[in-house]
Design a protein that fits this description.
Length: 279
């Protein structure tokens, strides 16, 4: 759901598994980019706006599982406030052929990439080289099934039954990985312990950790629990209960020493602390 907040900015309420994402705020920031975090003002603004939109929820800071913040690369527009500045991107090609993308946002990253590639291709063609434009517009996302989704889900859920995986977990894996779900089931079939859930109440299983380490270039516990699975955002403890198992799997797959394993765990706990800094 998207709705204007009390000050005119848009409030986003997006279902995200077991939780709802609320956003966003726009605040000037003058510190180090490495130290960006949501503060008390951000959290209270979003909760006030959400409670105005959904009065029966009575949301309070204690209901917040996690927060995140980042810097937005805006194009400078003289005389405009942060809120009024355009979120659009700009693609420029210098006389030397350097392509520069400025501004923009994550939700339009594919269009930004297309424009950048097309600009570079056009510049190369003008120089006499054969170069096609970007093919991203017709290229499916990794794992996108060719069959209609209901048919695909039904087939994948039948495959998961042989591993004694519950329906919720089967559907979760299918929707997250698409055609690549078969690779996750293969890992679970080779080691049945990998078909077990990582934390109570959520459908994520241990095979997803191994898959991320072997096939998705995960290199840290934060990669695994924030950017591959989403226990950081969806588990009430932000994945703390799953940490011993997750770090042990990462250590096994990546050849970590005990010291490296302990450091990875502490790095993840630091990420949790940053997400709770507003408290």
């Amino acid at each position: 759901m998207v709705s204007p907040s009390p000050d005119g900015r848009l409030l986003f309420a997006i279902p995200f598994g077991s939780v709802t994402l609320l956003g966003t705020t726009d605040q000037d920031f003058a510190g180090s980019p490495d130290d960006v975090a949501a503060d008390d003002e951000d959290v209270r603004f979003l909760l006030r706006a959400a409670n105005a939109l959904f009065p029966s929820t009575s949301l309070a800071p204690a209901d917040v599982v996690a927060t995140f913040a980042a810097l937005r690369p805006l194009l400078r527009e003289s005389g405009k406030s942060v809120q009024d500045t355009s979120r659009e991107d700009s693609v420029a090609v210098s006389p030397s052929g350097l392509v520069t993308v400025s501004g923009g946002k994550l939700t339009t990253h594919r269009r930004m990439g297309e424009r950048a590639i097309d600009s570079a291709a056009g510049d190369l063609r003008r120089g006499g080289r054969a170069m096609a434009n970007s093919g991203t517009r017709t290229r499916p996302f990794p794992g996108a099934p060719e069959k209609p989704l209901p048919v695909f889900l039904s087939e994948q859920e039948r495959e998961a039954k042989g591993l004694e995986v519950d329906t919720e977990t089967a559907r979760h894996v299918c929707l997250r990985y698409g055609k690549r779900a078969g690779a996750v089931w293969k890992l679970a079939a080779e080691d049945r312990a990998l078909s077990e859930r990582l934390t109570a109440g959520l459908p994520d299983i241990a095979a997803e950790i191994v898959f991320a380490l072997r096939s998705e270039d995960a290199g840290s516990v934060a990669d695994l629990l924030i950017r591959r699975t989403h226990l950081f955002w969806q588990a009430s403890d932000q994945g703390v209960a799953a940490l011993p198992r997750v770090t042990a799997l990462a250590a096994r797959e990546l050849g970590w020493s005990k010291a490296r394993e302990d450091a990875a765990l502490q790095d993840y706990l630091s990420e949790i602390a940053k997400s709770r800094r507003y408290r």
